[in-house]
Every structure is written in structure tokens, then in C-alpha cells.
Fold these 3 entries.
Entry 1:
Amino acid sequence: MASENCLVANDWICGEYLRNYRQELTDATVQHIWITAVSVAIGLLVAFPLALIARRWRVLAGPVLAVTTILYTVPSLAMFALLLPVYGVSPSLVVTGLVLYSLTILVRNILAGLDAVPPDVREAARAMGYGPLRLLLTVELPLALPAVMAGLRIATVSTVALTTVGAIIDYGGLGNLLLKAIGSNFKAQVLAASVLCVVIAVIADVALLGVQWLLTPWTHRGRGKALRTAEVVEAEKVATA
């Protein structure tokens, strides 16, 4: 009987709320995941060429990192207000804001990962006839993956939290429920939406950690002190022959 009246009593933990509002929670969770996934994916697509430009022309590295850092410091409400004249009240407004916030983390980690590739590995690959594109895709990126994936994990967890701000235009996933619940002091809804945000962040982080584990087997198999692909090792043999 007590559990049936938890909605009336406005308890924090209420099974009746979960049963009655199951569809609303599901819809908000799906929207939250979709916004996060799209924002991080676009952020990665934008950050990668920016990091390559910063590495290729070192004079641009400082400005690129400075601009992305400044964007990250802009308050979310101000960011959305600045983007409003361009996108209007639309999902693109939220996604664009989240993409801009993700850039400072992604660009820095991609650049750091590429810079950490040992110079002798690059030279060995070039000696074997690797062109710039092949060198990047088959040598540098695999070795930079731990740093890139670390940045991707941080950016994803951060985006899960920032997505809730989209509730100001009614496109914030679980943030929509949080905003309504806080305004009406609906405790069960505040707790449920908050817990779901945490669960999404944890699952996303663990999933990306699993992807990193699969893509970087050399980091957990103890196969050598240097992070080198089989092709590069062979290239070094040819170069020193």
C-alpha cells in the first residue's frame, strides 16, 4: 500500500512512478543517447582534421588549441543563445553546441597521440616507401589510438552530462524530465532521470574502453616495449639492412 501511495507522498524512491512513466523515461533515454552519439561522432569528424592541421603547420597549433579551449569555457546557456540566430530552436542547435564543447578534448588528445609516435618508427616506415597517407593510417593512427580513445571516452561522458542543458529548448533527453521535475519538486522523477544519466555515462565509458581494448591488443599483451605494428618492425629491418 505504501509503495502505491509513493507518488502521492512524493517519495524519492517510487516503483509506481517507474511503472506509470515507463514510456516517458524510455523516450527521454533514447533521445539522450541519440543526441550524445551524434554530437560525439560529428565532434570526432571535425577534431581529426583540426588536429592534423595543427600537427602539419605548427604555427597553427597554438591558435587551434586556444580557440577550442575558449569555446569550452563559454557557458552552455550563452553558447545556445549565440547559436540561436543561426539554427533557431531546433535539434541542430543542441548538437552543434555539444560538438563545439567536445573539440577541446578531442583535438588535444588526437594531437598528443600523434606526437607521441616515436620518430624512428616514422623514419623506418618512410624508408620502406610509405607515403604520408599510408603512414598516417597504418602506422601513426594505430599507435595513437590509446590517447585518441582516452579523449573520446572523456568527451563522451562529458557530452552525456551536457546534453541535459538542451532541455531549455525541450531537446535535452533526460534533461527535459529533470527540468520539469525540479520545477514541480517531483522527487522520483529527479532521481530516476539523474540515475539514468549516470548509467548512460558508465555504459558508454565501459563500451569505449572495450573497443579500445580490442583495437590496441599490444597494450595488454606485453608483446614489446615499443608500440609498433608488424609492418613497421619489418620496415626497420629493411631500413637497417
Entry 2:
Amino acid sequence: MVNRKELNPEASPQAAFGARMRRFREDRGWNQETLAEQTEYSSQHISAVETGRKPPTLPFSRRVDRAFGTSDGSDSFEQEWRDIRHGSLLEGFPEYVGREGRAVEVRLYEIGIVPGLLQTPEYARVLAESAVRRGAITPDQAAERVSFLAERQGALVRSRPPTMLVVMDESCVRRQVGGPEVMSAQMDALLEFAQRPNTVLQIAPFEMGELRPFDLPLYLLTMSDLSVVAYSESQIQGYLERDTASVLPLLSDYHQLQAEALSQAASVAMIEEVRKGTP
């Protein structure tokens, strides 16, 4: 084959994705133009993914699965794409996200920034772009991060959505992210969230001081079998706790946090003050 680049699937997970896609294509006797027609992408795009010059995306992976008939298996290209992306996530987080979309009750505590599940796209984009400027992630990874968050939020919009109990440290609403317009829209989104029938939103004020039981973000999920898992993370490490004996004390501390935090009415009043720009 003329100009056929030899692939090294050992080079990276992205290279392995491209090599596997080429193998599936050639096993069917297809050229790149045929796969391009099947996926509604250009042959240049197919070539770029196969040779690792362009990373696969979720929509692309799903179209490849439809073309090859691999959508329903554990070896689907979508699953491989998720494995690639999850490789850069903190330990425990991929499993947490999988459970999050099936939980019947979600409890969140966040410090410093609005919890991801409550972020507007603009707020999330500002945070991702900031990480790009710091050199922490690439622009493509930033776009994937925002897309991934939207996917997580979408998983909670169901016919029977989970109960969501959210406590935010006061710093989450006081910290300016993205300027007045972004913050104004984010505060509006928080106020709308507080009005939903399946949600409770509270703020842990600075005045709580030493009564605040957690110094790091915490996420607690209650599953349909009433089991509870906990996920916490630092800047560089995440940890998913499944052991009931270890999770129950965290759940107890979360109840104490809710008792000491502002009521939802008082929390809404504080958000409205921030929304108006008052100190």
C-alpha cells in the first residue's frame, strides 16, 4: 500500500486506538474513504486518528462503533476512548462517575469553586482555560473536560432524578471566576438549582470556623441497594471508599455539616446578595 505508515500501538493509548481502528477497517477490506463514508467524517480525519496525529473524541468513537457493529461490547471504541481519557483522571474518579449516574442520592461538599455538577458551561470553561494557561492541560483536554462535565450533568437528568444535597463553603460563591457576567449567570444557576423539588442547597459560612468537619471536598453516593460510597480528593490524588465501616463516620460528619450550615433560605439570601454585588 502506497504511503502506508507503520503504526506502533505501544507508543501511547491514542496510538493503540488508531492501530486497532485500522485493523478493524482492513479486516473488513475497507479503505479510509469507505470508513469515512460510514462515519460521516473525512478520510483525512480517519487517517489522522489512525496515525495518532488527532485524538479520538466521544462522538467519533460512537460513529466508529456503529460502523463496525461494536457498540454494545466491553471492547467498544467508546469504552477505549473512555479508558484513554480516564487515564489522566485521579485514581478512583472514573468508578465514582460511573456510580454517580446511577445513584439515588448524591451528597456533595465543595470548597473554593462551585461543584462541577452545578457549574454553568461558561464557568466550567473559564476553569478549564485557566488550567491551559498554567500549562496543566492542553486545549484539547480542556475541551474534553468541559464536555465530560456536561455528560455527567446530563446523566442526572432522568425521569426519576436523584435527590441532591449540596453544601458549599462560602468561598465557592465569594471567589470570582471569569468576571461579573460569568459569576452572575452562575449565581442564577445556583438559585434555579435550589428551587428544584429534589435538591437542597446550603452554604457553610466562614463563621463556622472549627465546626466545619471537612477541609477537602467530599462526595457521598447512596445507591439503589442503600449502600453508600465516598469519594474525596486532594490536588494530586483521589480516593474512592467503598467500605461501609469507613464511610459511615463520613456520613455522620456530613449530617453535622448540614446541621451547622445555613438553612437553604439563608443560603439563597446570601447567593442573591452576591448576585447583586453586595459584600
Entry 3:
Amino acid sequence: MRYLEEPEVVRTALSPIRRRLLSLLREPSSASRLAEMLDLARQQVNYHVKELEKAGLVELVEERQRRGFIERLYRASQSTLIVDPGVMGRSFVEIHDKYAAEHLVDVAAGTVRDVARMQTKADEAGQRLLTFTIEAEVRFGEPGDLHRFADALTDAVRRTVESFDTVGGRPYRFIAGTHPTPRSPQGGKREEKGENDV
């Protein structure tokens, strides 16, 4: 995994052709082979591969003689790239309304940033980053149920945190968020519509 927070590197990686090249280069390949797969000119593919190499996103893994010329095989430097949400051009001020969507996005962005950075360091040290994730889906009968659910969950989390919190212990951050379940990719509708449906 590599965490991208340099705007120039992000711009290098995010063009459609370069995203496709990075995907294909999870396995070593040459510019000639990539050009065949994408039906593009070899010179064009070679240019993009070189730019990705300059940005440290791909690496040369082998050079070999082939039909009178040297064939270079490249591979993506990391199998997973995580982009710092702040680089994408949108920043959020501190929001105290726990029901504001912007607050949930801000918290989620911070989680992506923090966990990706720690995972990168753990990978470099050959260690495992200990985390856990809880996911659930709940169907609220009335709009007001969300507020009652939030109050009940907050109370349950507070009591659980108090029972485990140890002075001098290793701090962990716990985050809980709720948002409407997105529509299915096929355009299917939810069973019932509520005030938060978009």
C-alpha cells in the first residue's frame, strides 16, 4: 500500500490511461505488451510508463534482449494506492453538528488518512496494524428513529468505553457513523423511501 498526499504524484496517477496501466502492471509487463493490450501506440504507452516511473509508482524489474533491442519490464511499486482526500480539492471546517453529512465525510477522510499512513509504516516495518471494523444495516421505520438510535448507541458506547479505558494504555480511536444505504448499481430502489433518500 502507498499513501499519496503529494498533489503532483496524485495528478500523475489519476489520468484514465495511467490508472489502467497501474492496474495492468500489478504483473510485470513491457510497454510493447501494454500497447497491444490497450490498442495504443507503443511510444504513447512508453511515455506514460516513464512518467509513472518518475513519480515512483512503477519500477523497472527486468531488462532483456529481444529481437535486437532491449525489452524493459515494469511493475507497479504498490498493489494499492490510497489518495489523501484533502488533495482532491475539498476541505472542511470543523463541524459540531453530529447529524451533518459534512462532519461524517470529514471524519471518514481523517480515518482514511490516518489508517493509510500507519498501514504504510507498518508494512515498511514488516508489522501488522491491529484494527477492527463493525458494519451493520438497520432499517428505521420513522425519521425520528435515527435520533433515538444515535442516543442509544452513544450511551452504549460511553458505558463500554468507560469499562475498558485504562490510564496509560495504548489509545485507540472508535468511530461510528450512519448514512442512507446507496441505491444498487443496477438502479434498484430501496424497499421504502424516507426523508433522507436521494
